[in-house]
Amino acid sequence: MNSGVERMKKIFALTVLFGLIGSISSSLAEPPRAFEGRRLFVSYCQLCHGVSGEGDGPLAIQMQISPADLTTTIRSRSDTILKKIITGQGRQTITGRDRHNLLSEAMPEWESVFGEQQVEALIAYLRFLSRSKHQLMSDPEVGYKLYQQYCAVCHGEEGEGDGVMTKLIRIQPADHSNINEMNPISNEGLVRIIQEGKDEYMPAWKDILNRNEIEALVSYIRLLSN
Ligand code: HEC
Ligand code: HEC
Q: Domain range for residue 219?
């Protein structure tokens, strides 16, 4: 009789637990805006601007045009101007402070293609290209999924170092979305930390994840900290 009650209690506890896990996983954070921006860039821009934005894409070479090196020009441009450049509003014939000074007709006008949020996502990715000292090693989308699966409990869903485990044990992972904290560590340095673990509480993942998966995680962390 008593053991029946105990069993019921256990089943009840498990149901609550799984309900909780279910609700956590269904409310996973969306990947940050730069991820959508990267997807759009790969499909629409890379042919001319090149993988890293330096202007050496195959279509540019074929068309004999030289798109700007986005990794440097972007830095001095405000979001407002970038929006105008991408949508094609405010060409240099329009006088006044709004002009953007693009001379070449070769840069397409994307106004009818993208909504406002997509343009903002593209700008977030362009900012990443111009700020990050490190290339993406592998697919950050793959890394995003692995991170939610294995790392978010400690590092937080958006990498800010505030996962549920930080409330249970005294750990203080770095803020993976902070470029100043992450830029000083090289890609290989990050790979090594993830493979080997760090101090007491950062587990070693080398027996669980393969090299590709770890590189994808590094790419996720890079794109997160744009
Ligand atoms: C057909 C080739 C082509 C494609 C595709 C293309 N661009 Fe361009 N883009 C250019 C060229 C050429 C320039 C240089 C124009 C100039 O300096 O007069 C340019 C310039 C730019 C600039 C301004 C750089 C600066 O600061 O001076 C931005 C920003 C830009 N492109 C973003 C994009 C984005 C975002 C996409 C994809 C949605 C895209 N481009 C797709 C050819 C292209
Ligand atoms: C059990 C908790 C826990 C899990 C799970 C975990 N980490 Fe960590 N991680 C930590 C802690 C704590 C540190 C800080 C170690 C130190 O600096 O003393 C850390 C450090 C790191 C660092 C170095 C920069 C920093 O945050 O301090 C990287 C990179 C990292 N972890 C990546 C990952 C990745 C990728 C995963 C998932 C595959 C992961 N971690 C899973 C606890 C965890």
A: 137-224
pLDDT tens-digit map of 3-58: 555 655 555 454 444 444 444 444 456 677 899 999 999 999 999 999 999 999 99
Mark whether 170 and 126 lie in a shared domain: no
Question: Using one digit for the tens of pLDDT, what is the confidence trace for 79-109?
Answer: 988 998 899 886 654 444 445 567 677 889 9
pTM beyond cutoff 0.85: no
Instruction: Please list every protein residue whose CB sits less than 6 Å from any atom of ligand 2.
Output: 150-151, 153-155, 165, 171, 173-174, 190, 193-194, 198-199, 201-203, 205, 217
Total count of domains within the chain: 2
Tokens representing residue 168 in the block: 């249970």
Ligand nearest to the CA of 85: 1
Q: Residue 174 region, left (φ>0) first, then alpha (ψ -120 to 50), else beta?
A: beta
Ligand 1: residue whose CA is nearest its atom 6:
45
73 C-beta closer than 6 A to ligand 1: yes
